[in-house]
Amino acid sequence: MNMLRKVIQAPTIEPITIDELAQHTNADDDHYDYLKSLVPRARKRFEQRTGRLLVEQTWQFAMPKFCNQIVLPYTPLRSISSIKYIDKLGQLVTIDPAEYRIVDHGLTATITPKLGGNWPAVGFKVVDAVQIECVFGHATSINEGTSIDASNIIDQDKYELSKQAIMVLVADWFRNREDTAPVQLYDMPNAFKSIANELAVELL
Q1: Parallel, antiparallel, or unpaired for β 100-103 and 110-113?
Q2: Three-point CA angle 84, 89, 91, nearest 5°
Q3: What's the pTM value of the predicted model, to 2 decimals?
Q4: What are phi and psi of 176, to 5 degrees?
Q5: How far, in Å, CA of 89 to CA of 124, rounded?
Q6: Given its phi and psi angles, is residue 50 left (phi above 0), alpha (psi -120 to 50 degrees) or beta?
Q7: Which among 44, 112, 127, 189 is least buried, having the fewest CB atoms inside 10 angstroms?
Q8: Cis ω on the peptide bond leading into residue 73 (within 30° of 0)?
């Protein structure tokens, strides 16, 4: 089932430091600010292409009704903040977490009713009759959002490989930032595409 989706809380920090970028691109101090400005764009490009979210962020999904198995489009899932639905009185009701299960054994997590249970019937046929709020991200932040918590990373190998893809893309944009660059600027480097394809989830 198609879902409406929007970011509720964007990442407060990027997964790549300026020192990592400088080492990867051999850039000097004068270019640090420009390099840093490219990271959010490159991260979002990677996340859009793969469905894999790098740093903790909260998303809301909306659907017109419940389906038996709700497959979340992004990974990795950290938590379900809430599942709500519009009842027959037009009120937004929060479902008790004891009433559903989170099955997280594949590329993406699936939410189902508890064993032997069923989803409630929505009261109105509107596109946002069901609203799910989730937290995703390989990494979380610490120190008031100023640094990555290295002790709390989900799947370190995939996280580091994802960072490599982002640095490849940033370096390509940095080296080919002029209109006269002898490359097609709308294209992406093969190394980025190869890593992104390897780490992509099935977007439903």
Answers
A1: antiparallel
A2: 35
A3: 0.90
A4: -120, 50
A5: 9
A6: alpha
A7: 127
A8: no
